[in-house]
Amino acid sequence: MVAGMSAWSWSLGRFFGIETRVHFTFVLVLAWAAYSAIAQGGTAVAAALAVLFMVAVFASVLLHEIGHALMARVFGVPTRRIVLSPLGGVAQLDGQVLRPREEFWVALAGPLVSFVLAGSLFTLAALTGAWSPTSFIGGLAWANLMIAAFNMLPAFPMDGGRVLRSVLASRVGLGRGTEIAAKVGRVAAVGMMIAGLFTSPMLFLIGAFVFVAAGAEARAVDGFLGRRSRDVGRAPGALFGRREDSRGERVVPDAIFGRQGGRLWPPRRKVVVVIDDRWN
Questions:
Q1: HSE on the CB side for 250, CA within 13 Å?
Q2: Of 128, 152, 176, which closes a domain?
Q3: Residue 135: C-alpha distances to residues 49, 53, 88, 189 (Å)
Q4: Order of strands across the sheet with 88-93?
Q5: Is 19 in the same domain as 135?
Q6: Is 102 a catalytic residue?
Q7: Cis bond before residue 78 (omega within 30° of 0)
Q8: Which of 172, 214, 176 minimizes the C-alpha distance to 193?
Q9: How far, rounded to the nearest angstrom, does the alpha carbon of residue 43 sit from its chain's CA centroid?
């Protein structure tokens, strides 16, 4: 999905060594901001300020995504690229599976950055008296607060949904945890789409995106676990862990580690090999 977005995007350069791109539809957002300002009776200066505000919001989203990327780097997971679009930003990590504790902090890092930005801007607004959402500083402060709060909704694969998945995965395993988080995410996505029908077309589009993405990520994890189960016997030095379901009737892969490109994947994993004749 990110690769497809990258094909229609322009490079913004590298931030903290991470390739950063913006989708071409960002131009439409800027045009809409300028048109809305003029349609409301504003001048060319008002239109320019509206465009500048939208750029500031996207810069805030970029900082949000950099927060994810830098926290992933702490755990030894590099970020391939960051792509910004009208629906938000995506930080594509080099690898699909993180340990639950790692995913928890990587998912939480972005909203924490947005909360810090909101707090800093609200402080500045208090000093300048620009509390109103219609002012530049006040509006940007409220925008960052909304970015943080909205992303913490338990709508997998949004940040809040990934936090939920990480907590579930630590208790019931990656496969089952993803399945539950994806179901919760789809319910939340349907709620967004219904709300969007009466409030904002953008909210409807975000809900539709979350609905599709939740299913896609769940299928990707299922495919990964199934593929690793089949390949574990062929992977040199492969290690695996196991977890039983709540009834103890079946064994599902909890984490499977094989060598890819000369390094353990997921990176820097150590497990104890558990031998069980039900794997034979």
A1: 6
A2: 152
A3: 10, 10, 22, 31
A4: 9-15, 18-23, 79-85, 88-93
A5: yes
A6: no
A7: no
A8: 214
A9: 37
Catalytic residue among 65, 102, 103, 217: 65
pLDDT digits (tens, 9 = 90+) for 73-129: 999 999 999 999 888 889 888 865 689 999 999 999 999 999 999 999 999 999 988
> What is the C-alpha separation between 175 and 265, in angstroms, rounded?
17
Are residue 133 and residue 24 in the same domain, yes or no? yes
* Integer Cα distance of 20 and 34 in angstroms: 25
99: tokens are 């340990």
Q: pTM for the whole thing?
A: 0.77
Buried b / exposed e along 101-125 (16+ C-beta atoms within 10 A):
ebbbbbbbbbbbbbbebbeebbeeb
At which of 127, 152, 177 does a domain end?
152
Is 250 within the bounds of a domain? yes
Strands 88-93 and 239-244, bridge-based pairing? unpaired
Measured distance CA(19)–CA(78) in Å, rounded: 11
For residue 166, pLDDT beyond 90:
yes
CA–CA gap between residue 59 and residue 37 (Å, rounded): 20
Q: How far apart are CA 55 and CA 26, in angstroms?
A: 9
Helix (H) or strand (E) run with residue 185 in it: helix 174-198
In a domain, 6, yes or no: yes
Residue range of the domain that includes 135 = 2-152
- Amino acid, res. 58: F
- Quick check: 6 and 21 in contact, CB under 8 A? yes
Number of domains in the chain: 2
